[in-house]
Design a protein that fits this description.
heterodimer; A: about 110 residues; mainly beta; OB fold (Dihydrolipoamide Acetyltransferase, E2P); 2 domains; five-stranded antiparallel β-sheet; three-stranded antiparallel β-sheet; 8 strands; about 0% helix; elongated; B: about 375 residues; alpha/beta; Peroxisomal Thiolase, Chain A, domain 1; nine-stranded mixed β-sheet; two-stranded antiparallel ribbon; 11 strands; globular
Amino acid sequence: MIVIQKCLACDRWQHPGRPICLTCGDAENLGDAPVTGNGNVDSFTVVHRAAAPYIVARIRLVEGPIVLGHLADNPEPRCDQPVRFVHRDPLPVWIPGHHHPPSTRSR
Amino acid sequence: MSVAIAGAAECDLGKTGKTVLELQTQAVTRALADAGLTLADVDGIATNGISRFSATQIADYLGIQPFWCDSTFEGGAVFEMYVARAAQAIAAGQCSTVVISYASNQRSARSRNLTGVYTEGTPEASWEEPFRPLYPISYYAMVAQRYLHVHGLRRADLAGVAVAARARAQRNPAAWTYGKGPLTVDDVLAAELISSPLGALDCCLVTDGGGAIVMTSLDRARDLPREPVTVLGYGEKLTHTSMTSAADLLRTGAIDTGQRAFARAGLRPSEIDVVQLYDSFTISVPLGLEALGFAAPGEGLGVTVPHNTTGGGLAYCHPGQFGVLLLVEAVRQLRGECGERQVPGAATALVHGTGGILSSHATLILGVDRR
């Protein structure tokens, strides 16, 4: 499961979490809430400065916030590509395609 | 009160084997000599990158006790910010003669770090560092990837920026790549990939270098040896530190800083004769020129306004923060001192500095007070 900070006062998501809602200023009704784990690749870069190149991407969650992450199992990454969040060791990754149906659980 | 730039100079560039303070001393004293002034005239200092107390450090090193200083540190855009602050301080009477300086020995000292430095307790240390983006390259790479995707362009299109920069540097004897001959698009594409789509030749140089400018009132500058370069307008903006803050990678703070600077100067992009733009990476050039109003989105690669006449950070010199050398070249172009690379009759210049990962922006518009 992936959770993102949500303001229950104004129903907005924000990432990274902060002690204040940047939309409404509320500081009392912030908490982490599950998201679908579905997003789209806003942009990506293959980093070649390592023994094994890896793909860093900006993922635009369908809920709105943008997070940084790794793409995996993805021979042809592209901007606007649908991806979904899955747990891997040691870091979670985003693999091609959305969860169907959208689920707050991932495996 | 109008304020002017009365002197400008580079320190030694390239691979110097000198310390930062030795290079700073060169920059400051050469700019003062250019202005017909001495250290005894200086009562304001703006600099960074020397030590924890950078302005105090250089002041002590040069035997100055200034009445005004600025060591704002927001990356490579700060030198354009210093010009705005110095103009305000001089106009307000807090000081009369300001030196803005910078120098780095990063090539000699082998001090450049590709992975960046994260500060414990910041969101970036928790949410970005674990994924090991290169800093700042991977951010610019994602901007470039998005730019190519949105506008239907290819890496080869972007490579043309590096080819053009190398060609311009062949008209600048001070450039790191002067005399190294032309680049081809194939050369750029064949270079080692660092963070795709950016390869080694899409990235600015790593060199020693720096420079300084001297500012004073326009009235006083008119009695000094050089044609005064006047400060017509400026604008600055901070937008983000996180790689995930920008809703649209292609809309940068330069849009606002350009509009503010043009409004203050009462000018339009078509009235600018020469542009000095921080070309940290190839993508920075089309994106910056578009944001500043010199081209429509997606058309920045075809811009015709003369720009980055030195060869820029890609082909001339990149000492970590390039903003001060953008100022030096703009001043020289406006005075008509640039020899083979001179833009004929240049009377207005736009200088745009950028810091971090397109985090901080500052635009200046300069003119010249012809005798």
